[in-house]
User: Which sequence fits this backbone?
């Protein structure tokens, strides 16, 4: 799953990161705190991932 | 650049994993690994085209867009492989799960200041369902769905009534 995901990433969204702020019409994305949370899911269990989604 | 690429890739991996876990948790729909990979691929191809065409700079990965595309293509996949229109409609459940997941992203990013009410979520679910079962003229697809949540996060509603009715 991880290897296939990496291949898909490289061929699709990974190749869009060369768009610079100066040439863009708009910017978007997760805030840093939420981005960090999703980035850290690689060493979390399924239960921990689901719990993180529902925390208040 | 490699660091940014690795960071964005892990954000996207975390989002897709959480999306499919929540789909199973919320409505019991479990998709095998090959199906998940195919849906991720389709979603990322279309999202990549969208980002390139509209020249979007990304501060971080856009969770609303990733999960808007996943919600739409997963619902279309379920619609093509199951019978829909029944009382326990798996396509409708899938659409509901997608909208709920997007709302969770909205809550996370707004520190729980924004939380769509039942009527707003039902309306979005109904429109996503229409799109997934080819009633496109009365539906909403991946881009529209993601945009709605992005715009809600950017506005500052002064009321706890329906947020969508104020847009």
Assistant:
């Amino acid at each position: 799953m991880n290897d296939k995901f990496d291949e898909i990433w490289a061929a699709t969204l990974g190749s869009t990161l060369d768009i610079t702020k100066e040439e863009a019409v708009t910017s978007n994305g997760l805030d840093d705190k939420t981005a960090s949370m999703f980035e850290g899911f690689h060493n979390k269990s399924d239960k921990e991932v689901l719990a993180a989604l529902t925390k208040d | 650049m490699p660091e940014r690429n690795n960071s964005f890739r892990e954000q996207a991996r975390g989002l897709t994993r959480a999306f499919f876990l929540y789909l199973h948790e919320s409505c019991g729909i479990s998709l095998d690994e090959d199906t998940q990979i195919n849906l991720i691929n389709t979603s990322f191809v279309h999202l990549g085209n969208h980002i390139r065409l509209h020249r979007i700079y990304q501060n971080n990965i856009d969770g609303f867009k990733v999960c808007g595309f996943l919600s739409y293509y997963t619902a279309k996949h379920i619609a093509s492989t199951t019978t829909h229109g029944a009382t326990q409609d798996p396509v409708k459940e899938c659409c509901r799960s997608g909208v709920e997941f997007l709302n969770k992203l909205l809550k996370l990013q707004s520190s729980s200041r924004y939380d769509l009410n039942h009527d707003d979520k039902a309306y979005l679910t109904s429109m996503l369902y229409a799109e997934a079962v080819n009633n496109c003229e009365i539906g909403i697809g991946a881009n529209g769905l993601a945009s709605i949540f992005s715009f809600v996060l950017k506005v500052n509603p002064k009321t706890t009534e329906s947020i969508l009715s104020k847009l």
